[in-house]
Amino acid sequence: MPRSSKPRTPRGRQALAALGLCAALAGPAAAQPLGTAERGGALAERWCTECHATGTSPRASDAGPAFPTIARTRSDDYVRGFLANPHVRGQMPPFDLSTAQIEDLVAYLQSLR
Predict the structure, then answer these.
(1) Residue 66: in which H helix or E strand, if any?
(2) Which pairs from 96-102 meet CB under 8 Å and 24+ separation?
(3) How many CA atoms lie within 13 A of 93 on its CB side?
């Protein structure tokens, strides 16, 4: 009797399902960037210029570091973590940013490097 290619264990089925999900997620949408500098710049202009010089507006404040300084001195992963939990550090108002908005801001900071 030939061996079946069908997984026999729950773990095997889970692995196969995960592989299928990864393949589905890697479709055409995977080729698109996670964030865009244009959207990030718009977010920065709307929300960040009260405390930061963002480079997007003639209005600027030195209450927080300038975005070009952040871009030069902080890694993308640091920025992601900071923006996901700003209230933990107590240095920023508790913005409730989505993952997409965080990626847009990271893309904007990358454009300033």
Answers:
(1) none
(2) 100/34, 100/35, 101/39, 101/43, 102/35
(3) 9
In terms of Cα–Cα distance, which of 41, 61, 63, 47 is closest to 112?
A: 41
How long is the chain? 113
**pLDDT digit string, tens, across residues 12-44:** 455 445 444 444 455 555 555 689 999 999 999
pTM value is 0.67
Pair 106, 76: CB distance under 8 Å: yes
Segment 42-85, tens digit of pLDDT: 999 999 988 899 987 777 777 889 999 999 999 999 999 999 98
List CB contacts of 84: < 8 A, sequence separation 6 or more.
97, 102
Dist CA 51 CA 96 (whole Å): 17
